[in-house]
Write a structure and sequence with these properties.
This protein is an alpha+beta fold. It is built from 4 helices and 4 strands, in the order αββββααα. A two-stranded antiparallel ribbon has the order 1-2. The protein is flat, with a radius of gyration of 25 Å.
Length: 114
């Protein structure tokens, strides 16, 4: 049996009402976030790119620029690889550090990136 138009309208209104109730618990969007870090993380430091180039990060909701982020290129990759290579050499602080301490540092880095 095909539902009549009033029944369809009533069902759609119920769906909209249910959707509004579900959405009411969501937090308001952050429209102007604070930008704490916009550099490249190399050797446990936030640094500017070797070239000095940046690129804009755009808010998709507004089209406005949120921040200018450092643009890494081959020189920055080489710098990061050299720092990582040194960090993993025998006897380095990273290699001699307890695994749980390394985990704590990685978690702290992840928190800073959020």
């Amino acid at each position: 049996m095909i539902p009549r138009v009033p029944q369809l309208a009533s069902r759609n209104l119920k769906n909209v009402s249910m959707l509004k109730r579900c959405m009411s618990g969501l937090p308001e969007p952050v429209t102007s976030p604070s930008i704490d870090y916009s550099g490249i993380f190399i050797n446990n430091e936030w640094v500017k790119s070797e070239s000095g180039k940046t690129f804009p990060t755009i808010n998709p909701a507004t089209g406005q620029v949120i921040a200018e982020i450092q643009e890494g290129d081959a020189a920055d990759v080489d710098k990061a690889v050299a720092a990582a290579t040194n960090a993993f050499k025998l006897g380095s602080p990273w290699r001699t550090m307890d695994a749980s301490q390394r985990g704590n540092l990685l978690n702290k880095l992840a928190d800073l990136m959020e």
